[in-house]
């Protein structure tokens, strides 16, 4: 029987690096990433699973890290925005496309969009318009009006072929 | 918005899980996908004293076609897994179509089918799908297992027929029957939102080429998904044409008793339920004919 | 450099997740704050007991209203007190100064109002402790609606006032009564712009600490106005402004919401001072929707009259605006509604009166457009109603009333908020309208029409005063490595200033943009600054940068002249190199010139400054006028009320464009927020002031799936009012969509006699309008 709030060891592989840290059960995965592991690239916008700013990949699948407890990710493989560029530092096609087509303004929602898009394009390299919009509709942006984000998604798709 | 403290358990067997849930001294809850529970915990609207994470219970991660042809979906099975499975797309296209309307990919990658059923949000798609498809739900507690029809399982707003210490361990969707047609219609404010109103319909033609059986479910118009008996009766023996659809619309609008909220008035929900039911009937019949 | 769609210099670090937003800042030994907030719209605070909270492990302090009042005066913002004399004479405003306690003391007046600050080891513990604070309330009657608040028997927000009227002013020109009587058609209508929330994806936050070495109070705030906040803190905490440094880190969107200063901005630094350790507060979304400022919430009772030929002869508008629980910014928003009412139209007789009421709701302050969208909604809706009555095409009716380009500069006869006469300096309104119309391509959507789907097109036109003063400052410096640094009081929240201001500097200094760094958002970078708001940065900061760059260029050539023993007129500056005209052999880099000034250099010109550096303060004259036309194409399903926004056209005049990609990004972003308000977003209070839209489940922002296809075209007329020829463009996109979309819906449902008087145009609302269940 576990005592209420007793800290547990969390082992996760983040962006290819094994990490080990302690977390009390209620510590949200988003806070664990940002404050325990100091990976502040993943952002928090709502803490109730709507805005998508906290999106990371868990075992390849896009998840809202504000709706998970760090302890649930024990043993998992996480990809955050810090892990998208290649080992030489070259930007991922999705990142490059956002830059070329002005797909970001304040940049706060951007990591969440990048991860969502990477997940989508990996599992569905040729999404229809409907499928692409479905996959983007889980991330909110308040700055761009979305047009350039959609264009960047299509450009990334082309380059990832 | 940070959750309150709780004790966390991550059992690996169902037996262990049920043991933990049987604790009568603590408010213990199942943590499956967390897509409904965790937001409520972050708002501190839900303050369970203990969470039992079923994510490591391998025996609950079931997605198989049983000998009898029904699709069994275990409590640990994610909505995304359902969508990726070719057997589901082929044999249970209505289920696949409905689940595609659930939230967004990030929700579906964690959210579970059974979790959504047990949560019974009145505007959620899965409870209505379960009702329309005639799903059988298996519930387990330390006292043993039992099976219920979807009709008996969904009680009212966020309330299902689970006794203290019980959990939904699987849902079985009946084997597909040849010659049936289906339709799923939903109107939501934005893409991926909970429905303002939704309608699900399954029709089967008899040998006479007319509707031999009909199930019509409306959701979003009350505390639980509703089979509109009067409309189902009216469909029998007809062909799903515009006249029938209009009659169905009228019956549905007369039957449902939705509430008003900030998103829509009761009158609107009523009218919308009728309209979507009509579209559902027409589309399901068209699929029947193919 | 100016006019090129240079990819942004901001992007790379943000794309890599290396942004430093407020909550990313980690200060050693920092503790976290949380705020207990009122769950009641209006109540007397009978008692507040924080004993149990204070005793909770991990809690450092609990500050309640009593403790706060002992240390801090209620907040009053300068901008609310200052009314130029010309504005005073023209409109005779009554503006009640309304001090706001940093923490509620004996009364709470809106849901979300902060009651106590808890400081604890971390946010989780702070929220645990917050639940232990016991507060006893005596519920008082609440008033929620602004018009109801102005009724004689309304419950009072401030009993000492005797009524709820915070602001009133009026303007009359000509004899509107007589003019209306002479009109062939008069339209009288009531239009409401409903309450919205800017909802940037990053909420607010403050981090404060005391520098142990020199006693500087270091404050980071997700703010648009670091200098204003510094000055506010200096007054509130009774410190020398020079002993306070306020910086804006990377800011995840603001849209006017982060322009106000809030109680938390003062309380968090206070806590840091008293506790002797850094304190961080990050707002959560629930707090944000209740306690960060809201926008819009105006009712216009508008009357317009025209001749049969469609000439608008008179406009009368009675405006009622809801300020929320505290009138913090005075005339800023409502006066904008007045000055932007007539927009691009030439109308002689005008009669406007505006009343602003306080109510027991969230505080209303500027939100992208800041009063302009509300006025445009009323006027552009009224114009369409007029067109219908006159049976004249709505575009044609507008065209008949536009101020002609030959009439520029056009004196509107009214006084702008800054006290200057409101004169449209430039713009081709007829061409804007024609360009928009040409881009609509409605025929492409004819195929969408069927027995239950109607297609409609709607237009809206607006003008926008941009580049308001009082000033912005800049400093340009070139160092010995050739690096150019531009310091400015402007701050950035996504507008790409680090790129556009660099482009402006690069234009004059003729260097690669990669060698220019723009530093803004820091009260220590330039001694005086105003901040980023009101569509002013390109105009005011941009011109400050340009002027400073020009001076630095002169310095460069002067020093180079001494180095090369050649008169400056014979030198040319090209791509970072200085050459003697006609000679290829001798070149100097900017770095060479800067290095020459080093005090170590015996050859340096005597008396020369140690650096290549120039500062400038740019004080604009009157605002410069941008303008736009928006057109929406919609498909409406009459059986469900569902609306699909098919296409959105923008014809825009922002003067000289510095970066076309960034300009269009600003336009589309603003339009999408306007679309959000038109179709999806509404802040809702119930009749006792409970906030019903307290999360993103209920306050629904549009997603990519709701975005239309955009078409942007420019009819840019350079501003004659500043050397760069630029006009502001941060807000324009948000001004027209509500009106354009409402007009499109009416067009689609024309045969059903639907009149759209308020939004959002949700399926339920459209359905109700069609079936006569809504007015």
Report what the structure shows.
The complex is a heterotrimer of chains A (161), B (290) and C (775). Chain A is 32% helix and 16% strand. Chain A has 161 residues and is α+β, with helices and mostly antiparallel strands. Chain A has 2 domains: 8-83, Roll (Ubiquitin-like (UB roll)); 93-160, DNA polymerase, domain 1 (Orthogonal Bundle). The longest helix of chain A is centred in the C-terminal third of the chain and has 14 residues, at 110-123. Chain B is α+β, with helices and mostly antiparallel strands and 290 residues long. Chain B is built from 12 helices and 14 strands. Chain B has a 5-stranded antiparallel beta sheet. A 4-stranded antiparallel beta sheet of chain B has the order 11-12-13-14, sandwiched between helices. Chain B is globular. The termini of chain B are far apart. With 775 residues, chain C is of the alpha+beta class. Chain C folds into 3 domains: 199-291, 2-Layer Sandwich (Aldehyde Oxidoreductase, domain 4); 294-468 and 621-770, Aldehyde oxidase/xanthine dehydrogenase, molybdopterin binding domain (Aldehyde Oxidoreductase, domain 4); 472-618, Aldehyde Oxidoreductase, domain 4 (2-Layer Sandwich), CATH 3.30.365. In chain C, the strands form 8 sheets. A 7-stranded mixed beta sheet of chain C has the order 3-6-1-14-11-12-13, with helices on both faces. Chain C has a 6-stranded mixed beta sheet with strand order 4-8-18-17-16-9. Chain C has a 4-stranded mixed beta sheet with strand order 21-29-30-31, with helices on both faces. In chain C, helix 17 (537-564) packs across helix 18 (590-596). Helix content of chain C is 27%, strand content 26%. The chains are: A alpha+beta (161), B alpha+beta (290), C alpha+beta (775). At the A-C interface, helix 2, helix 3, helix 4 and helix 5 of A face helix 1 and helix 19 of C.
């Amino acid at each position: 029987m576990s005592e209420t709030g007793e800290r547990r060891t969390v082992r996760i592989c983040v962006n290819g690096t094994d990490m080990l840290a302690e977390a009390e059960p209620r510590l949200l995965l988003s806070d664990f990433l940002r404050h325990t592991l100091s990976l502040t690239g993943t952002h928090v916008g709502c803490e109730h699973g709507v805005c998508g700013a906290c999106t990371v990949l868990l075992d390849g699948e896009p998840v809202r890290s504000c709706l998970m407890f760090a302890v649930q990710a024990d043993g998992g493989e996480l990809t955050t925005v810090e892990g998208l560029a290649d080992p030489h530092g070259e930007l991922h096609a999705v990142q490059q496309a956002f830059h070329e087509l002005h797909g970001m303004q304040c940049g706060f929602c951007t990591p969440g969009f990048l991860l969502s898009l990477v997940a989508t394009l990996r599992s569905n390299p040729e999404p229809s318009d409907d499928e692409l919009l479905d996959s983007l509709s889980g991330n909110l942006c308040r700055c761009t009006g979305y047009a350039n984000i959609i264009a960047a998604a299509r450009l990334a798709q082309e380059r990832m072929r | 918005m940070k959750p309150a403290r709780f004790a966390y358990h991550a059992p690996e067997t169902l037996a262990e899980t049920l043991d933990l849930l049987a604790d009568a001294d603590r408010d213990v809850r199942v943590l499956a996908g967390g897509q409904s529970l965790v937001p409520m915990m972050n708002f501190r609207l839900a303050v369970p004293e203990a969470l039992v994470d079923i994510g490591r219970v391998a025996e609950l991660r079931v997605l198989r076609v049983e000998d009898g042809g029904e699709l069994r979906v275990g409590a640990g099975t994610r909505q995304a897994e359902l969508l990726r499975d070719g057997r589901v797309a082929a044999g249970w296209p209505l289920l696949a179509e409905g689940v595609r309307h659930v939230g967004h990919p990030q929700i579906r990658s964690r959210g579970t089918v059974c979790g959504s059923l047990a949560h019974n949000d009145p505007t959620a798609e899965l409870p209505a799908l379960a009702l329309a498809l005639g799903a059988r739900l298996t519930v387990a507690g330390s006292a043993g297992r039992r099976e219920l029809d979807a009709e008996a399982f969904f009680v009212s707003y966020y309330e299902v027929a689970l006794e203290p210490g019980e959990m939904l361990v699987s849902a079985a969707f009946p084997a597909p029957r040849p010659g049936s047609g289906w339709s799923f219609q939903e109107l939501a404010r934005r893409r991926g939102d909970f429905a303002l109103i939704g309608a699900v319909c399954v029709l089967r033609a008899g040998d006479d080429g007319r509707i031999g059986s009909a199930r019509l479910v409306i959701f979003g118009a009350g505390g639980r998904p509703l089979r509109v008996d009067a409309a189902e009766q009216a469909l029998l023996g007809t062909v799903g044409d515009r006249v029938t659809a209009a009659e169905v619309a009228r019956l549905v609008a007369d039957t449902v008793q939705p509430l008003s909220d900030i998103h829509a008035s009761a009158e609107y929900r009523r009218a919308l339920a009728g309209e979507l039911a009509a579209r559902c009937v027409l589309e399901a019949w068209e699929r029947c004919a193919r | 450099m100016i006019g090129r769609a240079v990819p942004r210099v901001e992007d790379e670090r943000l794309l890599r997740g290396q942004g430093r937003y407020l909550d990313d800042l980690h200060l050693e030994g920092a503790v976290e704050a949380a705020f207990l907030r009122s769950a009641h719209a209006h109540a007397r605070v009978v008692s507040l007991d924080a004993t149990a909270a204070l005793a909770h492990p991990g809690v450092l302090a609990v500050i309640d209203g009593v403790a706060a009042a002992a240390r801090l005066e209620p907040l009053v913002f300068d901008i609310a007190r200052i009314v130029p004399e010309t504005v005073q004479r023209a409109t005779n405003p009554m503006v009640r100064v309304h001090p706001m306690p940093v923490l509620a003391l004996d009364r709470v007046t809106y849901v979300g109002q902060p009651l106590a600050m808890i400081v604890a080891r971390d946010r989780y513990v702070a929220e645990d402790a917050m639940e232990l604070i016991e507060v006893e309330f005596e519920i008082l009657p609440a008033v929620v609606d602004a018009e109801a608040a102005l009724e004689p028997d309304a419950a009072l927000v401030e009993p000492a006032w005797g009524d709820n009227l915070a602001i009133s002013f009026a303007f009359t020109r000509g004899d509107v009564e007589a003019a209306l009587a002479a009109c062939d058609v008069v339209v009288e209508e009531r239009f409401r712009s409903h309450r919205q929330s800017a909802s940037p994806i990053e909420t607010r936050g403050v981090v404060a600490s005391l520098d142990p070495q020199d006693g500087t109070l270091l404050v980071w705030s997700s703010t648009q106005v670091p200098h204003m906040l510094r000055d506010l803190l200096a007054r509130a905490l009774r410190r020398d402004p020079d002993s306070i440094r306020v910086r804006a880190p990377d800011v995840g969107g603001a849209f006017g919401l982060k322009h106000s200063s809030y109680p938390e901005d003062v309380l968090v630094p206070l806590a840091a001072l008293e506790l002797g350790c850094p304190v961080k507060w990050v707002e959560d979304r629930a707090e944000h929707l209740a306690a960060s400022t809201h926008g819009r919430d105006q009712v216009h009772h508008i009357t317009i009259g025209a001749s049969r030929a469609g000439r608008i002869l008179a406009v009368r508008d009675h405006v009622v605006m809801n300020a929320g629980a505290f009138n913090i910014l005075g005339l800023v928003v409502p006066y904008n509604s007045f000055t932007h009412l007539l927009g691009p139209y030439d109308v002689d007789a005008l009669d406007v009166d505006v009343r602003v009421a306080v109510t027991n709701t969230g505080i209303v302050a500027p939100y992208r457009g800041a009063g302009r969208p509300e006025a445009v909604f009323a006027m552009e809706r009224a114009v369409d109603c007029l067109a219908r009555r006159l049976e004249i095409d709505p575009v044609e009716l507008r065209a008949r009333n536009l101020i002609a380009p030959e009439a520029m500069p056009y004196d509107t006869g009214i006084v702008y908020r800054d006290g200057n006469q409101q004169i449209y300096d430039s713009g081709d309104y007829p061409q804007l309208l024609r360009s928009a119309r040409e881009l609509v391509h409605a025929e492409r959507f004819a195929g969408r029409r069927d027995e239950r789907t109607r297609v409609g097109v709607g237009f809206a036109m607006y003008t926008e005063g941009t580049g308001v003063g009082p000033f912005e400052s800049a400093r340009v410096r070139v160092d010995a490595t050739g690096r150019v640094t531009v310091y400015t009081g402007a701050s950035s929240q996504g507008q790409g200033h680090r790129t556009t201001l660099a482009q402006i500097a690069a234009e004059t200094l003729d260097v690669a943009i990669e060698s220019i760094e723009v530093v803004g958002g820091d009260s220590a970078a330039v001694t005086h600054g105003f901040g980023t708001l009101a569509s002013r940065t390109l105009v005011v900061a941009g011109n400050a940068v340009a002027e400073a760059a020009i001076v630095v260029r002169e310095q460069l050539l002067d020093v180079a002249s001494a180095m090369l023993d050649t008169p400056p007129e014979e030198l040319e500056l090209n791509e970072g190199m200085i050459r003697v005209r006609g000679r290829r052999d001798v070149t100097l880099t900017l770095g060479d010139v800067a290095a020459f000034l080093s005090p170590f250099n015996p050859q340096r010109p005597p008396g020369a400054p140690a650096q290549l550096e120039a500062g400038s303060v740019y004080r604009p004259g009157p605002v410069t006028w941008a303008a736009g036309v928006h057109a929406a194409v919609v498909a409406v399903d009459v059986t469900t009320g569902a609306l699909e926004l098919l296409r959105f056209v923008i014809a825009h005049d922002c003067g000289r464009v510095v970066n076309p990609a960034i300009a269009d990004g600003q336009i589309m972003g603003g339009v999408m927020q306007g679309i959000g308000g038109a179709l999806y977003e509404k802040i809702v209070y119930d009749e006792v002031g409970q906030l019903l839209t307290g999360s993103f489940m209920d306050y629904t922002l549009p997603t990519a799936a709701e975005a239309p296809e955009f078409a942007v075209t420019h009819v840019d007329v350079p501003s004659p009012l500043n050397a760069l020829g630029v006009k502001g463009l941060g807000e324009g996109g948000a001004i027209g969509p509500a009106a354009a979309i409402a007009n499109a819906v009416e067009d689609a449902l024309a045969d059903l006699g639907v009149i759209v008087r308020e939004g959002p145009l949700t399926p339920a609302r459209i359905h109700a309008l069609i079936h006569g269940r809504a007015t």
